[in-house]
Design brief:
By secondary structure, the protein is α+β, with helices and mostly antiparallel strands. The chain has a single domain, classed as Alpha-Beta Plaits, CATH 3.30.70.330. About 25% of the residues lie in helices and about 35% in strands. It is built from three helices and four strands; from the N terminus they run ββαββαα. A four-stranded antiparallel sheet has the order 1-2-4-3. The termini are far apart.
């Protein structure tokens, strides 16, 4: 999986970095958590402070485009982002059998 950052926009009003990116993968649309960890490393932000708004792939294409928001603090993230996006960007806990 290759990630290319197309644009970085600093939003001073919401105190966040808005990142437009492309992901090129060999198979299916990459998982949100995988993209989030690689993108956070690329832009030097904590993985817990990055929210992937969406990843979109055209039918049959190997490239996906997406938008991410990176925050400087957890408080700002929770004030601005909707709860369902925060939940979607949190890795699932392993299920216990028994």
């Amino acid at each position: 999986m290759k990630i290319k950052v197309n644009e970085k926009i600093t939003n001073k009003l919401l105190d966040r970095l808005e990142v437009h990116f492309e992901v090129e993968s060999d198979n299916e649309t990459p998982k949100r958590v995988e993209v989030k960890s690689k993108l956070a490393a690329m832009i030097n932000y904590d993985e817990n402070l990055v929210i992937i708004k969406g990843i979109h792939q055209d039918t049959g294409a190997r490239k996906s485009t997406g938008i991410a928001h990176a925050y400087k603090s957890v408080d700002n993230l929770k004030k601005v982002e909707p709860e369902h996006l925060i939940k979607r960007n949190t890795p699932e806990a392993p299920k216990e059998e028994g």
